[in-house]
Amino acid sequence: MNEGTAALIAGLAGTGGALGGAIIGAVAAVRGARIGAEKAAETARQQVQDQASVDHEHWLRQQRIEAYTGFLSGYDECTKITHQTRRKILDMSPGTGLPEEDFEAVTAAANTLRRLRQRVKLVGPAPVHSRAVELEETVWNYHADLEALADALDSADPDTDYVRDVEYQGMRGTAEAHDAFVRAVGSLLEGADTRRSNVD
Q: What range does the domain containing 175 cover?
């Protein structure tokens, strides 16, 4: 083999090696770029999901606070009307008749409380809604206790003292159910704040 042929073969081998290296390098670069792009896209997707989750939690927390506050305001209004009615009942004399307009106002306030409780049901969670149901039920039960007391006082029922004790216990029951609801809300919101600070 002469020197020219050897140089030609060496040149072709070098060119083939360079081309092979270039192709391998290009494939590796494309693959690396694709992997990098996939990683960047996954990171961006995760950031979007995380932000959406944070935004949803914030929105839900605001909706819950509004629902709980509305429900408590409804309870306060119901309590105000109920106590005004209670004072009238305790001042009743036998045969004066029942304060029907006052009972209608108590019923209207309790119905408003029921509507507000429905919003609590929508935003949840179930343990808080359960406490809201208990509070609403005690309000309706106390309404019945007040009517029973008014009937007993109006008719001079000999069991009036017993009926008065039942009414008083019903009033205490509404206060205890209110406290249980407030504690449930406080625990929920405190837990949410703790989870948020752990994420930060």
A: 60-199
Task: Please work out, in degrees rounded to the nearest 5, the angle formed at the alpha carbon of residue 31 by the alpha carbons of 28 and 32.
Answer: 85
How many angstroms separate the CA atoms of 156 and 159, rounded? 8
The answer to whether residue 115 is domain-embedded is: yes
Rounded Cα distance, 181 and 61, in Å: 16
- 13 assigned to some structural domain: no
Q: Quick one: which H or E segment has residue 149?
A: helix 126-155
Q: Are 133 and 151 in contact (CB under 8 A)?
A: no
Is the Cβ–Cβ distance between 150 and 98 less than 8 Å?
yes
What is the four-CA torsion angle of 155, 161, 165, 171, rounded to 10 degrees? 40
Question: Which pTM was predicted?
Answer: 0.74
**For 117-158, how does the pLDDT look when each residue is reduced to its tens digit (9 = 90+)?**
999 999 989 999 999 999 999 999 999 999 999 999 999 999
CATH number for the domain spanning 135: value is 1.20.120.1730
The answer to whether residue 32 is domain-embedded is: no
pLDDT digits (tens, 9 = 90+) for 94-124: 988 889 999 999 999 999 999 999 999 999 8
Indicate whether 48 belongs to any domain.
Answer: no
> Are residues 69 and 132 in contact, defined by beta-carbon separation less than 8 angstroms?
no
The 3-state secondary structure of 41-98 reads HHHHHHHHHHHHHHHHHHHHHHHHHHHHHHHHHHHHHHHHHHHHHHHHHHCCCCCCCC
Query: Among candidates 83, 101, 72, 94, which has minimal Cα distance to 168?
Result: 83
